[in-house]
């Protein structure tokens, strides 16, 4: 960075980040991308000199050499938790290396969670040779300080948490400009940060949060101002996803009520990350009070992801995990009690449960502990919205166990058959209407879509619906991790063959008969399809066009 700051033509390339406490893969936009933009501007680079590009838009550039026009290219990247993404693909290590090696003129800066682990990555020397790697853990702060240093102005001290929190809140407001430059605009979810760092003094052994040394807490008024700025751009979906445990935030009522006030057109307000240990340990009145606050202001379909990681007490102990199966069970009960109530047919807030395979100390019995635990939850009639089973991402010197792939697959199969499918039937019974679905991708005969928000259920809808902005659908069938639904309302006399064939138990012959005859009443339909199909169970779903 040698030019006067107002002349630095800058590209902020959002390679998307995903870490235990923050998600920035579309439709999510991470707060860090917004902070970075704001820090660049606050550092003296004018708005018209800063471009924002996402990983997916970058891939559409046919000729990388066009990027030589920039003086400064900042890549924000790093997925420190494994994930499968539908809405966009994070910038891969190969792409980052290629970009670094291809460009000669711009100063190339690498920022984001990737810089916490870059030295452990294969071929990391290429990164070292071609990038200025911001190892200072909070890239927006580091970049701001460097820009200020260039014009001999004071920066922000990294030990001044209040000053950092205040600067970040200003940058978040300026940074809301990037929403309109995102190819997904306005169908985006703003990930909001309440605090940074994990409050535990000794961390879970496998977790990358322990690498963060800068901790701060943002005030509810700052988050409210940020939401107001985001709402002004036309985006009205929010997730309080950027913190390690939302219930550890001290001003929950002010936070939620402030967000509602700041965006009266709010469409989605969800959360992520509640630590089940502290929730299970809380006195029950206090636990209820906190959960009631969330359920008063949030929108239905919200999910609190619980990192139990293993139901094996030995594994929990050697990894220093802050919960145990009993505490987590109590936390699951508490969320079900308050959040299990349905609004528009969808539970307000349900727990999710995360398991990690390959943790230190994992043994033969671990999978049996996990399975028995899930059976216990199911038998108690408790709902889980989502069970996430992943393999641990080895971090630094962490001694991960070798995962027995046969046993791992078998565990996933058992969970799918015994738990996931019955849970989906319980959470989204046949006939449930799901509104506001965003169609995302077509595969084979189905269009897949999800609602914006926390861990939304994947819904397959027969036919091609990609040209629609949003969809209302009605659930007809349940897979292990997705459900099938028909467009709502479903006029059976106007249905397509693909739609009719997806109705469980209907079969091709019945579908063809209906397509030819186009019955106009239940009576006509009943005569047409004959016995053997429980029409009485479908009367709420099959409608006839007026
Ligand atoms: S409780 Fe454990 S897993 Fe959660 S953020 Fe803290 S260290 Fe990481």
Biggest sheet statistics: 6 strands, mixed
Share in helix? 25-40%
- What fraction of the residues are assigned to beta strands by DSSP? 15-25%
Q: If you average the pLDDT, what whole number results? A: 94
Number of domains: 3
Number of helices: 18
In short:
The chain is built from 18 helices and 24 strands. It is of the alpha/beta class.
Could you walk me through the main structural features you see in this protein, from its secondary elements to its overall organization?
About 35% of the residues lie in helices and about 20% in strands. The protein is of the alpha/beta class. The strands form seven sheets. Strands 1, 2, 4, 5, 6 and 7 form a six-stranded mixed beta sheet that branches. The chain has a five-stranded mixed beta barrel with strand order 18-19-20-22-21. A four-stranded parallel beta sheet has the order 3-8-11-12. The protein has 18 helices and 24 strands. The protein folds into three domains: about 1-205 and about 215-240 and about 250-260, no CATH class; about 275-425, 2-Layer Sandwich (Transcription Regulator spoIIAA), CATH 3.30.750.200; about 435-545, no CATH class. Bound molecules: iron/sulfur cluster.
